[in-house]
Amino acid sequence: MSEILAPAGDEEAFYAAVHSGADAVYLGLKDFSARGSAVNFSPESLKKCAAYAHVLGVRVYIALNTLVKEGELDSFFRRARQAWDAGADALIVQDLFLGKRLKEAYPEMVLHLSTQAGVCNVYGARLAKRCGFSRVILARETPIEGIAAVAREIETEVFVQGALCTCFSGRCYFSAFVGGNSGNRGFCKQPCRKKYKIDRAGFDSYAYRLSLADLQVGKDIRKLAEAGVFSFKIEGRMRSPAYVGAAVRFYRDILDGSGDGARDLSDLRRTYNRGDYTKGYLFGQDERLISASIQGHKGEMVGRIAEGKKKIPRFVFVRSSYVPTEGDGFKIVRGDREAGGCVYTASCPVGEGGFYLPAAPFLREGDGVYLTTDVSLAARVASRRRTLPLTVHVTVSEGERPRAVVRGAFGEYAAEASFVAGPAKTRALTKEEAEDCFSKTDVLPFSVRVTAAVEGKPFAVRSALNAFRREVYEGLYARLAGERQPLCARGIGEGKDLPAPPFHSAAIADASAFSAMRDMRSDCFVYAPHDYKDLAASDRFLNYAKYSAGHIFLYLPAFMTDADIAAALPMIERFDGVFGEGAWTAEFCREFGKKLFAGTGFNLFNSVSLRALAEESALVAAALSKELSARESAAFQNAFLFAGGAIELMELGHCPFGKTCARCDRRASYTLTDEQGRAFPLRRYESAGCRFTLFNCVPLAPREASLALYDFRALSEEDIRAYARGGRPARVTAGLSVSGVR
Known about the structure:
alpha/beta
C-alpha cells in the first residue's frame, strides 16, 4: 500500500486533488501554517472538505507546522483540537517537543512530524517515535539509503514533486534576518531566489546561484516504494488547482500503470516547471539541481518565433503545432535566459503552421516560446469528477413504507421512508419511475446503478419520494463522512524546568580561531571542524581548549545522514559531549551516553517545548532560538541566549558549484555577494562529503545575557579578539534582538 499526498492552498485546489486521484490531501488553517500566504482554510471549510474527502476514501492532514511563541500556546492547542474535531486524519507538527506534549494530552490524535523538523537519519526517526509521532516527513536532503533505514523505524513520507528549499529543512534564517519574515513561521520572502555571485572562477557573475530547480522523481517513485516509503508527497500549497491536478494525475498514472505518460508530463510542465526538473538529493546531486539561469515558472516549449508566410503589423508569428486558447500565457526564452512574456488574445490572427502573438520590443526571431498558462488544461482539470460507485435497490410496496438498500465498498446501508405508499386511485408508480428518481444524486459524489421492485399498485407523491431519496443519500453521506465528538480541553503536562547548566558562557569556534582562543573568556568551547575525519585537528583543538575551558563539546550540524554520522564517530568519541543543532542529537546522545548541549537549531520557542526537552536524560544545556527577540527570550530561565558572533543563515545540503569536484579548489571559505554588494561568508566543511554553511554579511552585536552563546565561525581573527575582550567588531547588526520575527 502507498499514498499519493496532494497539496491544497484553497478549496478549488482541494477538489482538483481529490478528483484527480489523490489518496490524501494536506492543507493549512488560517494560522500556524508554513504557507501563511496561501488562502488556507477556516475550521468550517475544513469540516466540509474533510467530510467530502472521507466519503471518497481520501484522508485529510492539517499542517500546524510553524514554530509557536509563548503567547500563542493556548491558540495552538485550541487550533489543534478544532482541526481534529473537524475531521483531520492527522496533524502535521514542526516542533517535535511541542508535539510530544500534544500527544500526551490528546492520545487519540495522530501526529506526523513535519519536514521542518529535519529528520534525516535513524536517530531523528527514533526520537519522533518515542515522542508519539506516527509518521515522519523526511527532510528533502535525505538520500535513498537513509530513507530505507528510517522506513524500518517508522512510517515515512517523502517529497516527490515541487519546490526545493535551498537550505536544509527548518534551519533557514535568511528571510528572518534580512527582513524579519521567518520561514519557520510561514512567511519566507525567498531571498534564495535572488541573484548572487561567488568568488570562484565560473561562478563569479550574477545568477540565481542559490535557487534550486523543482523536484520531479517521476518513475523513480517505484524505487522509493521499494525502499519502504508509504506516502509520496507533492509540494505546492501556493500553486494553482491546475498544477495540483496535473501533478496528482502524473503520479497516479505512474503507480497504476495507466494513462498517457507523455501527455501527463506535458500537462505538468505547463502548470509549473522551474529549471526543467531535478531528482534532488534522493539519488545523489544531479546536474540540474541548481536553476541558475531562469527563476520561476518556465513552462513547456511549444515553438519558436519565426518569419510567417504572411507578415501582419503588430504581431509576431510562432511556428508551432500547438493551438492556443484565449488567455494562454507564454514565456519567451533566449538561449538559457528569460526575455519576457506574452498573452494570447482573441485579437491575434489565425496562422497556418502556427499562431500569432502581440509584438513586443523584446521579441526576436529564433526565441523559444514556452507555454506557462494553459487555459484549456485548467478547464480540463476542473471538469474531472471522482465518485463513489453504489448499487441501489428500491422497494415500493402498496400499503408499506418504501425501502432502499445501498451497497458499496463500505458495506451496506439501509433506510426506510417515513410515509406509507397508498393504493393508486388512477395511475400507479412504475418501476422505471422509481429507478429514475433514485438515479439522481444531486451534488453528492455518488455514481449509482439502480434497480427497483414495485409490488401491487402503489402510489407515492413525487415530492415525498424525492425527499426520501435525498434522505437516503444524505444519510449515507453523513455516515461515510463521520463526525467526531468534540474534544474537551485538557491540561498540558508542564514537566520540569531546564537544568541549571554547569557553565555560563560558550563559544563555537573552528580551527581558524586557534590563535585567538587564549583571549576568550569562556568556560565552554564548542569545536566546529572543517573535516570531521581529521582527528589530528580535533586533538589540537582539545589541547588548546582544555587549558581555558572546563567543558568542551563537538558541534554536530542539523543535517547529518547516517553515513555522515558513521564518518564522524571516531571524532565524536573524543568528546564528552555534543553541541547539537538538530533534534536528532537528543536521541543520539541518549543512545551513546554523551552529554547534550541543544543549540539554536533546536528552534526552542516556548516553555512547553523547553520543559519537554528538559526530560531528555542527556541534556546539560540548551539555547533558545535566535529568531526570538531579547524581550521574548527574557521570559525563560536557565536557557542560553545567542549573544554575538557569526549569524548562520543557511545550512546547504548540496554543493553550490554543482559537484564539479575534479575542478574544485576545495577552499575552506568563499564569499557569496548579492546585487547590493553585501558579502556573505560561505564556509565549506567535510563529513562523508562536502557541506556548506552560509553566514550573514555582518555579525551580531554583543548582547547582555546571563548565559551567553557566541559563534566565532566565519569571523576574522580581529573580530574574534574584539568579542573576546568584551568589545565589538567595527560592523555589526542588532539582528532580531529588538523586533524578533513575524
